[in-house]
Amino acid sequence: MEYISFLVETGVTSVAVQAFTGTYGINYGRIADNIPSSDKVVSLIRAAKMKNMKIYDADHDAIKAFRGTGLELVVVALLNGYLQAMSANDDQAMNWIKENVQAFLPDTLIRGICAGNEVLGMAEFELWGALVGAVKNIYKAVKKLQLADLVQITTPHAQAVFVRSCTFKKTVKRKYTKPFLELFAEIGSQFCLNAAPFLVYMADPANIDINYARFESKY
User: Does residue 62 sit within a domain?
Assistant: First the structure.
C-alpha cells in the first residue's frame, strides 16, 4: 500500500532545468483503497503549503487536478512496462510525450519525467538494457517539441544499487551506470535516488542510529 511521503532527490549534475523552484515535496501514491480524490489531495497539499509533487504514472485525472493551481508537478512517470517500446521506437516516445506531457502544458506545471522506477536491481534484466535508449528517445522527443528547457528527464534508483555509501554494485557499475551517467551529464539531468533510511532503520534498529532515519544533518 502506498502512502503520501516525502520526496527526496539527490542531484549529481550542475546543470538543471531552471523552471524547477522547489526543495522538497510529496510523493503522491494512489495504489490503495479508500483514498481521497485527486482534487481533495490537491487541497490538502495546498493547505500544508507544499508546492512540489511526484506521481508514479501519467494518469490524466491526477495531472488535470494540478491544472491552474500553481503547484509544480515535479515528476510524471513512464511505467517500466513501456521502457522497451520507448527504447526501440522514437515515435512511441514522441506520442507518449505529446499525450501525457505536452497536452497539459502550460496550465499544469510539469517539470520532470521519470523514465521507469528503480529499474537497475530488478530481476527483469531486459529492462536494464532498455533504460538508456528509452531516456535518449524521450529526451529527443522533448527537445524536438522545444520542451527541454522546461521538462527534465531522469530515472529514480533504489538504494540497492549501492553496495555501500556512493559505491555502485559491480553488477550495475560498468555496463549500465557509466552510459546513463554520461548521458545525464550531457543532457543536464539529475541522478535521483529513492532514499528510505527509515526502512533501513526498521530492518536493523539495534545497529542503525534512529537519527539516520530522521535525515539528521550529521548523516
Answer: yes
Alpha carbons 5 and 27: distance in angstroms, whole number:
5
3-state SS assignment for residue 167: strand
The mean predicted confidence, pLDDT, of the chain is: 81
Tell me: cis bond preceding 36? Omega within 30 of 0 counts. Answer: no
Q: pLDDT tens for residues 137-173?
A: 999 999 999 999 999 999 888 777 766 555 555 655 5
CA dist 135 → 8, 85, 130, 212 (Å) = 21, 12, 9, 33
pLDDT of residue 9: 41
| CATH number of the domain encompassing residue 70 | 3.20.20.80
Tell me if the pTM is above 0.85. no
Name the residue among 101, 209, 186 with its Cα closest to residue 146. Answer: 101
The total of structural domains in the chain comes to: 1
By residue range, what is the domain housing residue 117? 5-213
Cell numbers 543536464 correspond to: 188
